[in-house]
Amino acid sequence: MSLLTVGSVAFDAIETPFGKTDKIIGGAGTYITISASFFTKPVKVVAVVGDDFPKEYISTLEQQGVDTEGLQIKEGEKTFFWAGKYHNDMNSRDTLVTELNVLEHFDPIVPANYQGSEYVMLGNLSPQVQSTLIERLENKPKLVVLDTMNFWMDIALEDLMKTISMVDVLSINDEEARQLSGEYSLRKAAKKIMAMGPKYLIIKKGEHGALLFHEDKVFSAPALPLEEVFDPTGAGDTFAGGFIGYLAKTDDISFDNMKKAVIYGSAMASFCVEKFGTERLLEITEADLEARVKEFEELTNF
Amino acid sequence: MSLLTVGSVAFDAIETPFGKTDKIIGGAGTYITISASFFTKPVKVVAVVGDDFPKEYISTLEQQGVDTEGLQIKEGEKTFFWAGKYHNDMNSRDTLVTELNVLEHFDPIVPANYQGSEYVMLGNLSPQVQSTLIERLENKPKLVVLDTMNFWMDIALEDLMKTISMVDVLSINDEEARQLSGEYSLRKAAKKIMAMGPKYLIIKKGEHGALLFHEDKVFSAPALPLEEVFDPTGAGDTFAGGFIGYLAKTDDISFDNMKKAVIYGSAMASFCVEKFGTERLLEITEADLEARVKEFEELTNF
């Protein structure tokens, strides 16, 4: 089924205890589309870059099966740039640089060819941009998934609450769920958040896996205990891309199939962290993915 | 199969955001034996109390199926007493009072009737007391499980390393696994710790569940997302009691059966936190437990 995503396509510079990168391709939209294109093609992307964004990066996306008609290239402007440094535990990081550049006035234009998309993934971005995109869709999609973060809760809560009320699935981490709901218990938090609009809630817990909530049901997905997390950048976006990619491929939005989608998303994320940036995601095969999903089965079977 | 445990039988005074207790029955040995007696009877306990310990508390243990022949009552001495206060997140606590009393010179005497026990659970105690107990067993047990904590790593590491080298299964939490191994990655930590002696390692992660390691295998057990954690005191001991109780009942120490034992232990712990102290554990029925284990199955099935 057709899949549309909006999200940043950007430059990242990453420093971890294992090394550092120059400016490499990054951004939520990049990770989401690469991950989702593993399941369904084409993945239509709405995003914006400056004229400093290398043509070969765009070719990389296209080779993965990403439809870049909705990728705006702004002449004379610069691409969004983020630089960060991870601490030794790899669970926390400092942001060293954030240059919004083209993202500051991003108008999410939806090409005519993108209309009729049945699955929509709103990658982490200003909630005002996310809701504008939904409003520009001529047909109601089958499923809209929203990923966001505490930054928008801090500076644009009203816009965020509006966007949350328009989506079917919300994906946030445990601290964000607590902040948004004012509840420490994730079960209580989930109830309050689902009352804000989304029928489904995914709570990401990093190295502890993820929870999927729907009505009174809950599913707990483990994270694969890895020997080494090399670079966590993009893991949450990769998860989201795998989640919606699997749903679009199977075209089944039952709770039981969403559980599987959470596992496939988790499996994709477990690859993402094994190398810098998108490097590992561009290497893996279908057999790699199936073997990894099998590891998740063995991990939880009793 | 016969089950022997050593651990503190004590007074606790607990304060949580939901209320506070007077001195109630507590201690690792108490939670372990009550939890284990749900699976197999009698549970033989080696412990020590003072003459201030109420007869009705001992009767409570006996009614649950605990053999108290090894419970020493020291005339003119006082029972171990711990008081603590939980913070609002229920994940951290302050110790308000620790009175060692009879525990200071505890000599773990093993009654003749206790010899030949096939399953042995060493509850959290001084590692020197734990190793003394093992040395006093005339026959090698089928399985020895050790629970300990960071306190002993800080003040008695050498004794602890000796005790660790004598057991089959070690049960500690994630921070303790990192402290003991010097590794942040739990997978790496597990390798190093299993090289210290134990063939199996359980890493408890509180609200995030538990991991069971053996050779290259790993099992991830979820925690049940609860609406409310009322009192976490004794949850880890209750887990340990359920774990070894299930193994002693089924008399099967394969990795596959240990996975089930981790789930049964987790289910027992999920009851423990629902009320103050041991209150909830004394109420539950076999049907309650089976229903809870079913919830764990539904939680992880995909």
From TrEMBL, chains A, B:
GO molecular function: kinase activity
SUPFAM superfamilies: Ribokinase-like
GO CC entries: cytosol
InterPro entries named among the record's database cross-references: Carboh/pur_kinase_PfkB_CS (IPR002173), PfkB_dom (IPR011611), Ribokinase-like (IPR029056)
Keywords from the named record: Kinase, Transferase
Keyword RNA-binding: no
Boundaries of every Carbohydrate kinase PfkB domain copy: 20-280
Superkingdom, taxonomy of origin: Bacteria
Protein name per its UniProtKB record: Sugar kinase
The organism of origin for this protein: Flammeovirga agarivorans
